[in-house]
Amino acid sequence: MIKFNNVSKTYTKQIGEKEAFKALIDVSFHLKQGQALGLIGANGAGKSTSIRLLMDFIRPNDGEIFLLGAEPERAIMRKHIGYLPEVTSFPKNLTCMEMLYFAGKACGMQKKDIQVQAERWLTRLGLWEHRNRLLRGYSKGMQQRASFAVALVHNPKLLILDEPMSGLDPLGRADIVSLIEELKKEGKTILFCSHLLDDVERLTDEVLILHKGQVKYYGGLKGVREGQKGWRITLSNGEVKFAKSREDLTGVLSELAEQIEDIQVEHESFEQAFLRIVKGD
Amino acid sequence: MVDSIKRIQALAKIIFLDGMRRHAVIGLVGLALISEMFGLIFLDFFAQDLGRAVSDFLFSTMWVTGLIFLFFHAVQVMAWDEEHKVIFGIISRPISRSEYVIGVGLGLAMLLLLLEAVLGGLAFAALLWVKSSVVIELYFQVFNYTHFILAWFGLVLSLLVVLSAILLFSGVVRGGFAVLMMSISYYFIASGLPLAREHISTLVQQGGANAALEYILQGLSFLFPDLNRMDYKNFILVDVLPVSVSEISMQAMLSAAYIVLALSVACFAYNKRDIQ
């Protein structure tokens, strides 16, 4: 569905900048049908640049990009893509229904089909009662949900979600997470860009970790974490000791055997793994 | 092609609806209508050439309102879309960048047409009312309906030429202020160039200026067309057209060709740009 081969992007030097900014350096990744890939990284890592390249908002300096087998310049391919932008923004004087009609019509849908799909998604996202209100009156969370409806109205095969949880309260976030899970079960291919690592871990099969425009890790979620990190030993006086190796563990066991209250195997969390990969230690 | 037209129509519709609901545009229409009505009060002070005074005033109001609409609304539509990231929600659809530029242009043209149609309708009614209320017929002898429509058409076409230049600047540069500055400069150059050409031409004939300058100004007039060429408001008050129909058709065709060319360059430039 997506092929990103050795892509580099450098933004042209702006007034006051000493040098041009290299946003992506030789980045490659593939996304197959039905897969969910998480694109993660710190601010300025190149996540949004990757997505903008995919959507043909910007063009690469080097490398090739294929989206559903074609170059992103072919606008017609976007008929099969549901894109949720990082910053939700609509023409503020339109109603949600008008925006959905525009989105559907642009994808070649009939008015009747748009109506059916709009009802489905606006009901699912809790916006059906607000469908004829102007979007400028929507709260940030409502706008984000409306943006989701716009991305889904044409039943796309591929979903490109750029920070889908931004602006959502915990309830809204939980709702969107379950929606993305439903979409994943339906067999949609998902490219998910976020800095909320818990969501990425929950929703994706593979991750691409970017740092300063370069790929630091690309592969399955399981491979991100190092295996067992060690053992956590709690003593009866409340003191906690860590054993990183079997030798350390044997030493603690033989020395403090009578005081041991609990032993737990320590695993690296996804966040710890991310920090380790990004920091390079 | 049909799908492309449908996409352009869908985009033009949201540009139109969004513009219709903008308070500034609503205010502008209100102000223009009041201005047209208010102007009629002053017409009581005129006697001779009342028809010319009324039509001049009404058409000037329509022209100025159209320019205000273009310089305060049209210049910032594409820039606003980009600055507020609305553009991402639009071109993430199967809408090509050329379709986006044409769609925005069509939406704005529809708004402009509606605006001028409302003002034109009121102007027509006002002229009829003034003519019928004139006691001494000499003060307002002729009101030619067909010529009124021609004058309205010429005014709208001239405004559409300015709109196409605005779209061209919007396609080339980023930021509403830059587009506004370029558009206003364009308008002033286009308005002043015929006078400059006339002056230089006289000087060249008298041997006071280099003929090359005249050629340069002539060349510039292809980039900055004379917007007064389509000003037919004086024809409203005559029975017979002082210019031939073929000349009017030629002007209309040249204006249309200019609009198409400006839009093509705008599409080309916008296609080459990074949208951030």
What is the structure about, briefly put?
The complex is a heterodimer of chains A (281) and B (276). Chain A is of the alpha/beta class and 281 residues long. Chain A has nine helices and twelve strands.
Strand/helix succession of chain A: EEEHEEHHHEHEHEEHEEHEH
CATH topology of the largest domain in chain A: Rossmann fold
Strand order of the largest sheet of chain A: 5-6-7-3-8-9
Name the quaternary structure.
Answer: heterodimer
Round the mean pLDDT of chain A to the nearest integer and report it. Answer: 85
Query: What is the total domain count of chain B?
Result: 1
Total tally of structural domains of chain A:
2
Compute the number of strand runs of chain B: 0
Structural class of chain A: alpha/beta
Compile the SSE list and pairings.
The complex is a heterodimer of chains A (281) and B (276).
Chain A: E1 2-11, E2 21-31, E3 36-41, H1 47-54, E4 62-67, E5 81-84, H2 96-106, H3 111-124, H4 140-152, E6 158-162, H5 170-185, E7 189-193, H6 197-203, E8 206-211, E9 214-220, H7 221-224, E10 228-235, E11 240-243, H8 246-256, E12 260-267, H9 270-279
Parallel strand pairs in A: 3-7, 3-8, 5-6, 6-7
Antiparallel strand pairs in A: 1-2, 1-4, 8-9, 10-11, 10-12
Helix pairs in contact in A: 2-3, 2-4, 3-4
Chain B: H1 2-20, H2 23-42, H3 50-83, H4 86-91, H5 97-133, H6 145-172, H7 176-205, H8 211-223, H9 245-272
